UniProtKB/TrEMBL annotation:
<keyword id="KW-0378">Hydrolase</keyword>
<dbReference type="GO" id="GO:0000036">
    <property type="term" value="F:acyl carrier activity"/>
</dbReference>
<dbReference type="InterPro" id="IPR029069">
    <property type="entry name" value="HotDog_dom_sf"/>
</dbReference>
<dbReference type="Pfam" id="PF20791">
    <property type="entry name" value="Acyl-ACP_TE_C"/>
</dbReference>
<feature type="domain" description="Acyl-ACP thioesterase-like C-terminal">
    <location>
        <begin position="56"/>
        <end position="153"/>
    </location>
</feature>
<dbReference type="InterPro" id="IPR045023">
    <property type="entry name" value="FATA/B"/>
</dbReference>
<dbReference type="GO" id="GO:0016297">
    <property type="term" value="F:fatty acyl-[ACP] hydrolase activity"/>
</dbReference>
<dbReference type="InterPro" id="IPR049427">
    <property type="entry name" value="Acyl-ACP_TE_C"/>
</dbReference>
<protein>
    <submittedName>
        <fullName>Oleoyl-[acyl-carrier-protein] hydrolase</fullName>
        <ecNumber>3.1.2.14</ecNumber>
    </submittedName>
</protein>
Length: 158
């Protein structure tokens, strides 16, 4: 099972400022929104503070030269939000991806990523534990695109 909490906002393309979402737009999305009680999760993970900035010289894993592909883009020529998650998960050490399964992710989008942008993915084990990682996606010029924290658990025997 999965729990997703989302906040939506609208940005005026000309002023680059937040704008109110028109009632007409809200009404169109209403059939797709369910207001359910959240599933119980590990609140220690969710409430363990701000997502950390990672510095390249302290990162356990660095991946350079990441570029959005054509089908990674939305109609505004920005990378889909799911693609950010993919880049973050790929930035987790292979040994963790092979032996564990993702239990939880907290993600903070910082800015848009366009078709011509080239990114760098950094990850570091949190407090030296192999189950929790902090992640950072950066543009080549150092501008932050997204921060994340992931929690992994040993794979269930199937």
């Amino acid at each position: 099972l999965m729990r997703v909490d989302s906040d939506f906002l609208m940005i005026n393309e000309k002023t680059r400022r937040l704008s109110r979402i028109p009632e007409e737009i809200k009404a169109r999305g209403e059939p797709y929104v369910r207001n359910l009680d959240p599933l119980p999760i590990d609140n220690k993970f969710e409430n363990s503070g701000k997502l950390q900035k990672i510095y390249e010289d302290k990162a356990d894993h660095v991946q350079n030269g990441i570029k959005p592909l054509w089908f990674d883009l939305d109609p505004n020529q920005h990378a889909h939000n799911v693609k950010y998650i993919s880049w973050i998960l790929e930035g987790t050490p292979e040994s963790v991806r092979e032996k564990c399964e993702l239990e939880a992710i907290i993600l903070e989008y910082r800015r848009e990523c366009g078709r011509e942008d080239v990114l760098k993915s950094l990850s570091v084990a949190s407090n030296g534990t192999p189950q929790e990682f902090h992640h950072l996606l950066l543009l080549e010029n150092g501008t932050e695109v997204a921060r994340a924290r992931t929690l992994w658990r040993s794979q269930s025997i199937k």
